[in-house]
Amino acid sequence: MKKTPLYQKHLDYGGRVVDFSGWALPVQYSGIVEEHKAVREAAGLFDVSHMGEISVAGPGAADLVYYLVVNDTSRMKPGKVMYTPMCYESGGVVDDILVYMKAPDDWLLAVNAANTDKDYEWILEQASGKNVTVRNLSDETAQVALQGPKAETIMSRLTKAPVQQLVFYTFMDAVDLEVGKALVSRTGYTGEDGFEIYMPTDIAPQLWDRIMEAGKEEGLIPAGLGARDTLRFEACLPLYGHELEKDITPLEAGLKFTVKLDKTDFIGKKALAKQKEEGLKRKIVGLEMLDKGVPRHGYEVYAGEQAVGTVTSGSFAPTLDAYLALALVEAGYTGLGTELEIDIRGRKKAARVVKTPFYTPRYKR
Amino acid sequence: MNIPEELRYTKTHEWLRIEGNKGYVGITDFAQHHLGDLVFVELPETDAEVAAGDVLCSIESVKTASDIYSPVSGKVVEVNEDLEDDAGLLNEDPYANWIAVLELSDPSEADNLMDAAAYREHCEKEEEAMG
Question: Which end of chain A, N or C, is less packed with Cβ atoms under 10 Å?
């Protein structure tokens, strides 16, 4: 298993370390529910150093990024962040990523851990002959996420830079955090306000300690991947390998707001335009259990005897005190209020299509 | 780790307390600790007949579903309905909060289970194996 530069911190804080797609990372410290609630009510600190970072630089960088992703990066300015799927020609998803525009010829892509190598190969392939340099910076970059309503207070104690002025989906590069310089981004994967901090691996342990110290009075606690998953799930933020896949398109995943078909060109445009025109045969919906039970990834969804879909993510939702699921369901069964059943370990249990997101995010606009 | 002397234990981390011809079944402190926050208990049905080692019911933590095995054979005569509303009771006190009561078909089966000392050793071995 690969270790992040914060591995020793996880052990020091009593983290329960598991294998997360090849990375030794804590699923929890004090408990998933406690950590989840801390992020909703105060703040949590996550080690997300397993995430990948890919630099795209050079005269052709802006055009390449524009062509790689479905969202419209030509509308971006330096200091902006954009969330977007990156698709195959088929319209299926290579990965969902964050695009950082540092300068017209200098971009950073933050990608999912398990997809880093695949994404890097994919981008290299597309970059050939385009006058850009593509570099995989993942091994030299650590990342932590400071999330929760107290994140701004804590963050502003770490630096003289006016980080509190950042609005959601903007960033500052080379912010002096005393222990070293880092990229500070007002983004996150929890449905709360917060920051994601990208830094050289060697300063990560010291920065972790500084953040924990600065957040002591605010109720900051370290949070693991278990809480990260329940938090993103309540906010209905998609997870690659669940709501997004090689054979699921962003339109089916409910990410229509990212698919800019008026762009001159991008990989997957033809397939996505066709799918939009023909109408979706299936899409991701939210389900709430009417019978008690915990729906989970892979469980079948039924309308009477007929299988009409599959659960992509399911969990007990700690903030909402409900058993909820996201499921890929055939058209015709996706209307709000539609009653369906989920086969939970051999028992069919009633569920109902409900509005998403389950939890309304509280971002700083 | 809390391992009461008066109970009997399975390798799969259930406990059994015998009162007359009845057996109270629950999960151990080791089990609740390693499962993490419990969010749902699918209770067995009353009158269900189970053999020792059969799946009695299932419990779900935030991350996973786990089967609970019956330590002994018998008929389910009572289930702890408090757990339906609050599975977290098993985290708070796994010994006070039993899951089901069995009418034992063969009380001598309890002799096959571990006592507290043997169970403690079993847990230590498992902890070692987990690293």
Answer: C
Nearest partner of A243 among A190, A293, A297, judged by Cα: A297
Q: Which residue of A has its CA nearest to B84?
A: A292
Give yes or no for residue B11 having a pLDDT over 70: yes
Does residue A226 belong to the interface with chain B, where contact is any CB pair within 8 Å? yes
- Domain A2-48+139-234 belongs in CATH node 3.30.1360.120: yes
Q: How far is B62 from chain A (nearest CA, A)?
A: 6
Q: Averaged over A308-327, what is the pLDDT?
A: 97
SS3 A165: helix
Write down the pLDDT at residue A364. Answer: 85
- Whether residue B131 is predicted with pLDDT greater than 80 in this model: the reply is no
User: Per the structure block, which two tokens stand in for A144?
Assistant: 């932590």
Closest Cα of chain B to A34: distance in Å?
9
- Quick one: pLDDT at residue A355? 98
Each domain of chain A, given as residue ranges in start order, spans 2-48+139-234, 281-365
For A253-284, what is each residue's pLDDT tens digit? Answer: 999 999 999 999 999 999 999 999 999 999 99
Chain A and chain B share a number of CB contacts under 8 A equal to 38
Look at residue A180 and tell me whether its pLDDT is greater than 90: yes
pLDDT given at position A234? 98
Residue showing tokens 């693991």: A224
List the domains of chain B with CATH numbers.
8-106+113-126 (2.40.50.100)
Q: Which residues contact A282 (CB under 8 A, 6 or more apart)?
A: A252, A309, A328, A329, A330, A331
Domain A281-365 grouped into CATH 1.10.10.60: no
Question: Hey, are the CB atoms on A31 and B60 less than 8 Å from each other?
Answer: no
How is residue A52 written in tokens? 């990948």
Q: List the single residue in B40, B62, B63 with the smallest CB-CB distance to A292.
A: B40
Residue type, A195: F
B42–A345: do the CB atoms touch at under 8 Å?
yes
Residue A294 near chain B (CB below 8 Å): yes
ipTM of the complex: 0.90
Do the first three CATH levels of A2-48+139-234 and A281-365 match, i.e. the same topology?
no
Predicted confidence band of residue A365 (pLDDT cuts 50, 70, 90): confident
